[in-house]
Amino acid sequence: MEKVIQIKGHIIRDDIIKRIDASCVQYNGTYRVLELQIGRQVDDISSAKIALDINDEGFTLILNELTNLGIEIPSMNNQARLEPSEKDKTVPDDFYSTTNHPTEVFLDGKWVRVQNQRMDGVLVVKNGEVFCTKLRDVKKGDLIVCGSEGVRILTNNDEQNDHDFAFMVNDVSSERRVEIAVKKLAEEMKAIKAKKGKIIVVAGPVVIHTGGMDAFQDMIRKGFISGLLSGNALAVHDIERDLFGTSLGVDLDTGKVVKGGHKNHMRAINAVNKSGSIRQAVEDGTVKSGIMYELVKHNIPFVLAGSIRDDGPLPDTMMDLIEAQEAYAQMVKDADMVIMLSTMLHSIGTGNMLPSWVKTVVVDINPAVVAKLVDRGSAQAKGLVTDVGLFLTLLNQQL
Amino acid sequence: MEKVIQIKGHIIRDDIIKRIDASCVQYNGTYRVLELQIGRQVDDISSAKIALDINDEGFTLILNELTNLGIEIPSMNNQARLEPSEKDKTVPDDFYSTTNHPTEVFLDGKWVRVQNQRMDGVLVVKNGEVFCTKLRDVKKGDLIVCGSEGVRILTNNDEQNDHDFAFMVNDVSSERRVEIAVKKLAEEMKAIKAKKGKIIVVAGPVVIHTGGMDAFQDMIRKGFISGLLSGNALAVHDIERDLFGTSLGVDLDTGKVVKGGHKNHMRAINAVNKSGSIRQAVEDGTVKSGIMYELVKHNIPFVLAGSIRDDGPLPDTMMDLIEAQEAYAQMVKDADMVIMLSTMLHSIGTGNMLPSWVKTVVVDINPAVVAKLVDRGSAQAKGLVTDVGLFLTLLNQQL
Amino acid sequence: MEKVIQIKGHIIRDDIIKRIDASCVQYNGTYRVLELQIGRQVDDISSAKIALDINDEGFTLILNELTNLGIEIPSMNNQARLEPSEKDKTVPDDFYSTTNHPTEVFLDGKWVRVQNQRMDGVLVVKNGEVFCTKLRDVKKGDLIVCGSEGVRILTNNDEQNDHDFAFMVNDVSSERRVEIAVKKLAEEMKAIKAKKGKIIVVAGPVVIHTGGMDAFQDMIRKGFISGLLSGNALAVHDIERDLFGTSLGVDLDTGKVVKGGHKNHMRAINAVNKSGSIRQAVEDGTVKSGIMYELVKHNIPFVLAGSIRDDGPLPDTMMDLIEAQEAYAQMVKDADMVIMLSTMLHSIGTGNMLPSWVKTVVVDINPAVVAKLVDRGSAQAKGLVTDVGLFLTLLNQQL
Amino acid sequence: MEKVIQIKGHIIRDDIIKRIDASCVQYNGTYRVLELQIGRQVDDISSAKIALDINDEGFTLILNELTNLGIEIPSMNNQARLEPSEKDKTVPDDFYSTTNHPTEVFLDGKWVRVQNQRMDGVLVVKNGEVFCTKLRDVKKGDLIVCGSEGVRILTNNDEQNDHDFAFMVNDVSSERRVEIAVKKLAEEMKAIKAKKGKIIVVAGPVVIHTGGMDAFQDMIRKGFISGLLSGNALAVHDIERDLFGTSLGVDLDTGKVVKGGHKNHMRAINAVNKSGSIRQAVEDGTVKSGIMYELVKHNIPFVLAGSIRDDGPLPDTMMDLIEAQEAYAQMVKDADMVIMLSTMLHSIGTGNMLPSWVKTVVVDINPAVVAKLVDRGSAQAKGLVTDVGLFLTLLNQQL
After folding, report:
1. Which residue in chain D is spatially nearest to B18 when comparing CA positions?
2. Which chain A positions have a beta carbon within 8 Å of B64's beta carbon?
3. Considering only CB atoms, which chain A residues are within 8 Å of B326?
4. Of D387, D396, D398, which to mutate for an interface test with A (greatest number of A Cβ within 10 Å)?
5. Are A80 and A148 in contact (CB under 8 A)?
6. Interface of A with D in 348-367 (CB under 8 A)
7. Model confidence over D181-218: pLDDT tens digits?
8. In this complex, do C308 and D315 lie within 8 Å of one another by their Cβ atoms?
9. Distance (Å) from the C-alpha of residue C22 to the closest C-alpha of chain A?
10. D281 touching A, CB under 8 A?
């Protein structure tokens, strides 16, 4: 039986009719466009009336998809359906799974904005407020938003207008003018700093191997960095460099392998273990320079998340990943920008936690890594395929 | 002042004189070859008398390097020097850092074989036995082997003669005959199975995306797999495939993205959470097929190590990485072969734990990943650049 | 001053309004959608009336773009404008530049189909016929189609419905089920063979290095291959393998470098030079097996195009690239399918010559190569990231 | 029957005994080291007496290999064996195939230096002089050096001592300090310029896409570039940029695709065709800036070699590759340095022509390309994995 829905939003810009068509194909349904009023321009709001002859599963899916794209469906503006969790860490089967876009839930006659927005979460309603919650944090009895009725995504207009910053994303090929991109990024960073915003860097040890650490340290001293997210390796190599002049046994001034240098990273961990922590190693004079040194000296927080491949690890490295994920999430809360430098693992981890309105830049010499990060649903991420060392040097020159 | 050392071993094969030369350049020392008796063939044992004029640091380093290469230095056959640890998780500054090669320590007049051999460990002596120990497991008061006197590496002759299996390592380029390599690998696996040996697989979710899971499940059923090391993603995608026919929302039969499928991996985790664990989900009929299903049904152990990027995770995923590393290490103990399939993170983690005599094969479509794994000091690792799905299909046909 | 155009075609499916919007942004113009009648489904024909307020350059560009997308603009159905070339190899500045889609030109009251369709050509009108012509073949006085009035692109409906064959293109990632794609490709090839169609292979020497030559030779013997396009290297390595068992000095059975083998490719060229040509070398018994041998024995034509890096070259390698391009173009004329195996250079060269209705498959282990080929305007190309040797083995099993 | 040979040279440094061992394994022979006198240091000359029990083919191969490594074998200092070619473009089967190292031939009692040294050539003796000759240039009756008796390679000591410049080669990984490498390269270039030496650049169009053209033009104006080797694409994109501000239709200032811009490269070719050549297009004012403009204005020669994928091509592009190879070879004659920028095809073509004493630098963002070029027997090539645009900017700053 045909159902008729009224929709309103960026019907042309966001290919709404093509999407409905694809869903109908998948579910052996059909549709007819009864009315279509389109705006003067692509970015204008259009409205349509569409008749759908499709089974219930397909119908729900179409409504859900349109909702997630920011399309208003007045017939959906009913009270959201809430069902209790029957067991810790579980939700009803038809739970609403969140995107990273700004979301509202219709409760008791009004739209309530979701807090702690991130992707792949569930929505828990507590005292009239709605919290985006990780599955593992759901408690038995929590009220979970189910289906997609009474849920809507706000269209982020700022994002759409941000043409200049956006230009990078179209093409992750290395055949582009990195200099232009760096210039725009520097302007953005200066604007964020001017309004006392928050810029978080996610970095891998390649920052050190490629000689980007001088520029990075300078950026810390200049006050552009509000926090660092990384793993054990960056800190170990940074401290190894300070103590022995090598990184994984390679002399950083000459690029040559130092005999016996393979042992240096374990010696560095041993030295920090003797001090008790990185902060203490800086304060007792064991560590005298480097990225970790500058962070400690300027009281910039950092989180080092452990991984299965870690040696040591340093006492600061969090090997309990539940704790590490919480600490990461805390760090990126309210961030204005996140810059991801040559570390797929920590970048994906961080990307999962970010709402879509945080400016995100991914830099790596490997186009596949950049593409993978940009593709993972972090539509806001801009990719830059280039040498991270030269990138940081150039960026710092502009700051 | 010149010191003269007598050395014995594969002086020609292992480029011993070139290595001494390089160390002398680094430490501004000089050397003279006073005598050199070489064998009839390169693989034969040679002996030499060499005069070294070099400072103490350089001298120690040369002795240490030669020792690690399996060269005997009779003048070094003194009691190993033991120093106590002064604080948990720390060792004296000149601790001996282990390789992954078979090692012996000279104690009380005889050579004692090191137990739990792995790279980047320290040697702890307890009741006349020597244990290769991770830095974090060292306790205050433990006796640590320091310097390299009284330490020697056994030359693994088996490794050298293993010409056929070794052929793959020379070139990680994709331009080679994968079929030949698969044939040899299959023979090796059958030989290991025949003697009731242990074959451990380290695998990433690409095994599922590339369609390799049917072959892999068959290999489990045939009894070739003694254990699986992986992370959260492989198990989630495997169970998602069983429950919904998709992997990360992509239909595995048609290769097309399924509308709304992005939510399926969270639905799969929710389903397992309801059962309580993967084993329970298999036993209560929630999960009816797949890699995890076959492992449970055939009582093959698996360890899933958590990472910072994990969603969920599944209740079986170990988010405490100290525990996860212990469980991994336990799994590879006494393994005869480790096959690493398209997961750099878990492969490096496992590689760190392996002694050099474990046959190790690394398969990835990306030559850079294979090269990185083979380079990381796991000299025994053979690389194979190919499509993992086709590789498993072909391998299973030969088993 | 506003101009109003009437358009008809796949307005929704091909994002026509978004494209007009983008052009207006670029040329500081504006537009209003006066009417929009859309079909029942996305694939149906829609029609619209649009008012454009934009300068002449922008207006021409929009008409040209719409035309190239197969949109009918009745107001454009005027006699095409023809201007004479004033000098060999040159055309008037506003020449119409061709796509690889089927094109018609309006001449003397009727639509005339363009012959020799390819991309980046110009249209020459001669005796009422229209020829897609390379710039270098234009002669002074030739009548050239200028502007885009009187030109239209036919929408290739077959292409759109070809859902099964098309599935590969969406994602060039290596993380997909190659087996499914191979199965579909084999079916397609059998269908083409059944109707005595033409399948051309473009191949690089990797076919030999990866061990794909046995399968490829078998495909030639079975009659699936109508012609081979390649360069000097494939033929040299193939003949080197026949004469000496090596390819670039590497033993193909063991994968080991043969001492002195680096010289073998020059010895192979010398041997063919003595015979006079590849055909003669086969006929006089010098060459006894291999890809080139099978081609000669089965009278399958081949073209070897020279390149700046060629050694030798073989007497059959065409070092005059004008001739080589003509020979390539002749070979792909009326081809039903082109399979490109691991050679970016020859694949791009061939892709430039193909009309959009030729089924095209690109296979390479490097995702970047596949992406580059698929992106180069050959919208019909399907990419497959996998090991070419295993791919050919698997494909041949299905044929 | 055992033959005893006396050898002299870098026996330890160049692993001579290991190489003899490997050849004996291949030919089922055996050897005994009867005497070995090694120098004080690895770089010193050693001498040895070795007994070989091996068949004739293996014996010849060992002598040939040792000769090519610069080992002196006094028993080999006989008159070189010369055999006439029996047919144009062919040589006797046991011809001596050249390396790119400096070579001498023993004729009439003295060593004669080979002229036009390059790899994969043959040696033609004419009037007491020896010419390294491409196979295709051999004429019937030419006297060809056969076997390896009477041939020796000179050890290039300069190369060995060139430690600083050499450091880059060890590791083509992107994880290194590009800045250090650029600094050393700039010093080298200034030294070459100071002594009026010859620096040739081989470049692909990526130089333009990545924004490196400003720096490159500046380097031309400063007089650092003695010649450019490239293909059709670099010149077309450079002139397209001058005429229309785009490169392959992408606006180089904003990085955005320009509507209708895909046609611009054909328009650029048309414009140059109207002028008649690039030089004429510069002189008649059609082309007003860019790399080609600067080359013409400063009378720096360039060679554009055609390829099978070329559109157009420009009138300057040589489509006869025999001519193009001659022109390339002429350009690199007596070059002191060759810098290869992001073009595998032209770089391999040039590398084939270079003697081993020409300093060669390969820059590409893709590690696989750098590795392939460095591996191709051009042992002198130093690889640098980085963004070419930033590389040129940085390099120009140092010049």
Report:
1. D42
2. 260
3. none
4. D387
5. no
6. 365-366
7. 888 899 999 999 999 999 999 999 999 988 899 999 99
8. no
9. 9
10. no
Complete DSSP assignment for A276-315: SSHHHHHHTTS--SSHHHHHHHTT--EEEE--TT--S--T
Reported ipTM: the value is: 0.88
Contact between A31 and C13 using a beta-carbon 8 Å cutoff: no
In 3D, which of B341, B350, B347, B351 has the Cα closest to residue B395?
Answer: B341
How many CB atoms neighbour CB C254 within 10 A?
Answer: 14
Is it true that the peptide bond before A313 is cis, omega within 30 degrees of 0?
Answer: yes
Query: Which tokens in the block code for residue D262?
Result: 């895909």
Matching residue, tokens 């007819």 = A32
| pTM reported for the whole predicted model | 0.84
| Chains within contact range of chain C (3+ C-beta pairs < 8 Å) | A, B, D
Test A33 with C40 for CB contact under 8 angstroms.
yes
Q: What is the CATH number of domain B157-398?
A: 3.40.50.10690
CATH number of A1-75: 3.30.70.2690
Dist CA D324 CA C147 (whole Å): 37
- For chain B, which residues make up each domain, given as ranges? 1-75, 77-155, 157-398
Tell me the nearest-neighbour CA distance from C164 into chain B, angstroms.
8
The DSSP 8-state label assigned to residue A378 in this structure reads -
The pair phi, psi for residue D119, each rounded to 5°, is -85, 160
Q: Do B206 and C175 touch (CB under 8 A)?
A: yes
B49 beta partners: B6, B35
| Residues D113 and D120 sit within 8 Å (Cβ to Cβ) | no
Judge: A12–C17 Cβ closer than 8 Å, yes or no: yes
A95 class by beta-carbon count within 10 Å (0-12 exposed, 13-18 middle, 19+ buried)? buried
Q: Which residues of C touch A45 (CB under 8 A)?
A: none
Residues 136 through 155 of chain D touching chain C, CB cutoff 8 Å:
136
Joined together, the tokens standing for residue D348 give 């391999």
Query: Of all helices (H) and strands (E), which one includes residue A222?
Result: none
In degrees and rounded to multiples of 5, residue C378 shows phi and psi of -90, 75
- Measured between its terminal Cα atoms, the distance across chain A in Å is 62
Using one digit for the tens of pLDDT, what is the confidence trace for C62-115? 888 888 788 888 776 688 999 999 999 999 999 999 988 889 999 998 999 999
Q: D77-155: which CATH topology?
A: 2.40.420
Instruction: Enumerate residues 6+ apart whose C-beta is below 8 A from C323.
Output: none
| Helix, strand or coil, per DSSP, at residue A252 | coil
Cβ separation A33–C15 shorter than 8 A: no
In this complex, the chains that touch D, judged by 3 or more CB pairs closer than 8 A, are A, B, C
Comparing CA positions, the residue from C39, A248, A324 lying closest to residue B313 is A324
Cβ(A231)–Cβ(B307) below 8 Å: no
